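Notebook p. 47: complex prediction with WQD.
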Amino acid sequence: MKKILVTGGCGYIGSHTIVDLIEDGFEIISVDNNSRSSEQLLKGIEKITGKKVKNYKVDLCDFNDTNAIFVENEDIAGIIHFAAYKAVGESVEKPLLYFENNLVSLINLLKCVEFYKIPYFVFSSSCTVYGNPDHIPVTENTPMKPAESPYGYTKQMGEQIIEQFAKVNKTACVLLRYFNPAGAHPSALIGELPIDKPQNLVPVITQSAIGKLPGITVFGDDYDTRDGSCIRDFIHVSDLAHAHTLAMRYLMKKEITPDTEVFNLGTGSGFTVLETVKTFEKVTGVSLNYKIGPRRPGDVIAIYANNDKARQQLGWEPQFGLEDILSTAWKWEQKLSEDEKLFSRRNIGLN
Ligand code: WQD
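Predicted complex, structure tokens below:
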């Protein structure tokens, strides 16, 4: 069984990808310092797959601790690198925190890839590298524009670091540009665990629907779109996860070349913010309290993917649409709420 190192394995996309990799026959180890995650999702992975995944609670910004993982695991066949900070707004307020964390961790990891000659490397990138595109849908050849945030710059720089690294190392690399990850595993045993108040639309919707948030502010309805609100390409986290497994299999089959491959991971369909809100109400029967507010600085007006390359070269076929994304996200939110009630009842000795 080939062993894959997943960084950020306790996180939202990392945990879903571990499930998919295990189901495809891989052995997994995780590295996650739990600064923005908890090992709770590892329990969900074990319930779904029956496999207990070892997590190394290591900060990848510490080279010696990172190196020690490779000393202990001489049989790492490939790496999927998720671990990074990803809150757009926070990155604007704390740029150095983002550049240091996201880039030092990547460089430390690549130093180990180089020294231990790890042959396959998959990088978690983002459609944010396109900035505000002039034409949509975007293909992998759509030119990058200035990023809208330091977070976006760390993804652009991360891609460039990997491309230059791959030119002089026998490591086959793939960059996966996610559009808007959302939803949860259909079992509701793993999902998104926002650490603080969520910034992203779908968790804001589900937390508003369950009563954790008072309501939703739609950031602008005066854009040049069909209903005035922004357009996004929401991709189910399980579809995203499977794309990583396909990408790793793709690398393992192909000859190692100095060229890095890039793939867009979106459904190819764009929905407006207001359409997403209304679809949630339709799918769940829960009416949402929302109001129109001012535009959010840095928001891209409209973006969705041309995903032909991933379909053709990875054999990737997204299985979930917007309604599935919203219904699985809602099922997960309801499960979280039940668990929190159970936890608080136990704490006060009610059962
Ligand atoms: C989507 C739309 C908001 C919240 C970012 C990163 C991307 C990825 C996902 C990491 C926008 C609107 C949102 C709210 C709203 N990050 N919105 N009210 O900004 O497209 O993408 O997060 O993987 O790389 O760039 O996602 O969900 O924050 O916003 O109206 O309370 O929903 O204005 O138009 P975004 P988002």
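Notes: The longest strand covers residues 120-126. The CA atoms of residues 91 and 167 lie 30 Å apart.
Next step: compare against the earlier run before touching the bench.
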